[in-house]
Amino acid sequence: MSKLKITILGKNEFRDTEALRLIRLAARECWKAFKYPFDGQVDITVTDDGGIREINREYREVDSATDVLSFPLNEFEEGKAPDDIGMSIDPDINALPLGDMIISVERAKAQGEEYGHGFSRECAYLTVHSMLHLLGYDHMDEGPRKATMREKEEEILALIGLERK
After folding, report:
1. Rounded to whole angstroms, how far apart are CA atoms 79 and 69?
2. CA atoms within 13 A on the CB side of 138
3. Which residues, other chains included, contact 124 with Cβ-Cβ below 8 Å and sequence gap of 6+?
4. The predicted structure's pLDDT at residue 18
5. Distance from CA of residue 87 to its chain's centroid?
6. Stronger pLDDT, 14 or 70, i.e. the higher one
7. Which pLDDT value is given to residue 165?
8. What is the pLDDT of residue 83?
9. Cα gap 123→120, rounded to integer Å
């Protein structure tokens, strides 16, 4: 079984113990669901609304805070790895670098309360959502691609006991 290597970045003040546990759990469960024959690696930065706003402004030219940002390194297509994936395996870590995920823990707490499903589900949801972006899922349309992504998110969240109530 392949493994997902996770590097957590960000200032210590944003490294909420419960958030980090949920982020690791959700990211690994998402990776496991695809049964890839190779290991993966992801960098996850935890921050607050101010930090994610700066990153959003710098890399996407959007001057506002958001809940999660995803910066994929490979061209997956809805979970299917590119055929030439072997060329992208980093020999130093013997894993495929997937890209970067930035999560506003501050926003996850606020949205969990706003949506009425709590911090745990929101933190795990944002992680799974971002992982799916790194694995080639998209929701830019309001049609079948968004529906496919939402279905996969709920499937993975159910595996960790955080399905929509």
Report:
1. 18
2. 8
3. 22, 23, 25, 26, 157, 160, 162
4. 85
5. 23
6. 70
7. 67
8. 84
9. 5
Element (H, E) at 109: helix 105-115
* pLDDT tens per residue across span 15-59: 888 889 999 999 999 999 999 999 999 999 999 999 999 999 999
pLDDT in tens, 117-126: 889 999 999 9
4-159, what's its fold? Collagenase (Catalytic Domain) (3.40.390)
- Which H helix or E strand runs over 51? helix 49-60
Phi first, then psi: give them for residue 47, nearest 5 degrees: -150, -170
pLDDT at residue number 58: 96
pLDDT attached to residue 162: 86
Q: What residue segments make up the domains of the chain, in order of their start?
A: 4-159
At residue 80, φ and ψ (nearest 5 deg) are: -85, 120
For the record, the structure tokens of 108 come out as: 């996850």
- Residue recorded with tokens 């060329």: 87
CA distance 64 to 34: 33
3-state helix, strand, coil in the chain (%, to 5): 50, 20, 30
Pairwise CA distance, residues 53 & 66, whole Å: 7
> Cβ distance 125 to 149 under 8 Å?
no
